[in-house]
Amino acid sequence: MGANLTEPVRIGIVGAGNRGRNHAARYETIPGTEVVAVADVDEPKAQALAERYGAESYPAHAAMLAESDLDAVNVCVHATLHADIAVDALEAGAAVFCEKPMADDYAAARRMADAADRTGNALAVQNQLLYTKETLAAKSLADAGALGEVYHGTAARSPGLAFSGEGHPEAVPLGARRRGTPYVDGYGSPAFLDESAAGGGVVLDLGSYTVGQLLYLMGSAKRSAGDTAGDASPADRSSALEIPEVERVRAETFRTVPDRFERTADADRGEQASEYRRRIDETGYDVEDVAVAFVTLADGSVLSVRTSWSRYMEGESSALVGTRGGVRLDPFEYYATVGDVEMRASADLEEYLFRRQYLRGERGEAAYDAGLWADPLYHWVADLLGHREAPPTADLALESMAVTDGIYRSADLGREVTREEIVAPGDAED
């Protein structure tokens, strides 16, 4: 299982819900893939999805791993289940792609990373923000040394693509929202708001995107700043990513949505307010919907985190600030001093993306024309087949889990927490 990969990559999907249907639909558009198995404890769901793609269905992932000839496994279930399934698949010889967040806490994510290291099988974690044209352009600036030594990043809000249950992409801002609470505001399932299923709230749901994106960009800038000027080309400077390591986290989390519909001021909303209230009561709503954090990294740089499902404020843009320049991602702008003139420059990102993809030859042209350039599944498959190396999404996701776990622990203890307390929580003192 999983050895000597050739096209098509034979994929088994665990989870036949919205994410499983989403990923299966996207594989239909990605060359070199074939969905051959679907596993779900809800057997009718597994059978329905499997029949649609001519695959076999299984009542559990263990049976799928034992009986199906797979190259790779795609994990599309609740975060609390990710680690057990991913570890089993890696140990069975399969490569693994896991939906975000990597897991429900750092310890579980560490188990997954250790299993990948131990078995030598590839592990990847979903984060479509790593492939947007805004991220690619910001990384090009960082790789070229145009930002200098980055000392502050903001993980807040970035444009990206969300994929519907049928796999269709839609441009959306990710990371912070004024109004977008899962299920309560009309989309998603009640499980988003159930900590026992989701592992947490907005920090894991949206924070995992922007935190991973900013660690990726700060790692690029860190690598470039370490090169002696003139000694390395931009291509050489981007060849290795030094992911910044979390040192300390101070955070607070908030649960604001239930209070919104308990106030008499909302009575004039009538039946609409009653429906919101009903949905809140149905879910139990025991997760956070707003979080604010300040992360100190081991290299001395800092990361501000703003994430929300529903916050009465315009979205703050994700950004990087360095000693030579700064870049804001939404809208994309570059700030620098040129000839003693303070510059605020925009960019033609579509032209940049077009040129970047076409320079990669026929595969790049095809990816651009088909709109696949922003799909993490496309990049994962290309990496598995040896066509192109993808970013180290599992390493980024693991360090992102150190941030998200640190946010929860700091908010719970009411103080700053150290890395040691995050990665070895049994040693923390109340």
Automatic annotation (TrEMBL):
SUPFAM superfamilies: Glyceraldehyde-3-phosphate dehydrogenase-like, C-terminal domain, NAD(P)-binding Rossmann-fold domains. Residues 137-327 form the GFO/IDH/MocA-like oxidoreductase domain. One of its GO terms (molecular function) is nucleotide binding. Residues 9-125 form the Gfo/Idh/MocA-like oxidoreductase N-terminal domain. It comes from the Archaea. Keywords: Oxidoreductase. Gene3D superfamilies: Dihydrodipicolinate Reductase, domain 2, NAD(P)-binding Rossmann-like Domain. This is Gfo/Idh/MocA family oxidoreductase. It comes from Halorussus gelatinilyticus.
